[in-house]
Amino acid sequence: MIQHRANMDWMLKDLAESVPQTRNVVVLSSDGLRMAQYGTDTDTADRLAAACAGLQSLAGAVSAEFPHSDGKMRMVVIELDGGFFYLMAAGAGAYLAVLADEGVDAGLIGMKMRDLVARIGEHLSSPPRGEGPAA
């Protein structure tokens, strides 16, 4: 089980508060487990993290269509009625997800996400889980 990393909360808060109209920020492992969150309740963050695992997998499959791709997803952006969804690779086995309202500055949110990942990417990593004893 991946523990909630409370020491990341202030960094996620800084991202959310520095970009007007940012709603939720979630850090998740590649297998869809919530690692940290800001601006949302635990149940919503868990659902978002699980959905993101599927999206990053889909993005990896699409990357196979590019002849020189390394198969790794960097960023997915989805525009929806009412807002935007951003998913960015954030370290080995970790991702940063952001939900924002329609009027968000898309360039600013992308830049702030990249800055956050560059500053603390190694702290956002989620090492692969080893084989444990059978329960």
TrEMBL record:
InterPro entries found in the cross-reference section: Mycobact_SerProt_Inhib_Rv3364c, Roadblock/LAMTOR2_dom
SUPFAM superfamilies, per database record: Roadblock/LC7 domain (SSF103196)
Organism: Streptomyces olivaceiscleroticus
Full protein name: Roadblock/LC7 domain-containing protein
SMART domains referenced in this protein's UniProt entry, alphabetically: Robl_LC7
Domain Roadblock/LAMTOR2: 9-100
